[in-house]
Amino acid sequence: MFKRNRLTLEEARKGFAIFKSIPLRVVKPDFDNALEISRQAGIYAYDAYFLDCAVRHKSPLLTLDQKLKRTALLFNVETMEV
């Protein structure tokens, strides 16, 4: 956020307040499936864990990562920016 001068400190604080209001549920990724997603899509396993959870739970994926957004579309996962 700050590294690329996308937000001011005040904008980041407002965004974080909104983020804290989002209902979250901790779920475990299917590591075998995530590794397969990582291999197929050529993305880091770390990113594939989030994508796997979004696919299995039919949830949108919150990300600013452009490559992950493009990959999510291949798996019919909606993406959102915070």
From TrEMBL:
The entry's keywords: Endonuclease, Hydrolase, Nuclease
One MF annotation (Gene Ontology) recorded for this entry: endonuclease activity
Domain PIN: 26-72
Entry-linked Pfam families: PIN
Protein's UniProt keywords contain S-adenosyl-L-methionine: no
Name of protein: tRNA(fMet)-specific endonuclease VapC
Protein source organism: uncultured Desulfobacteraceae bacterium
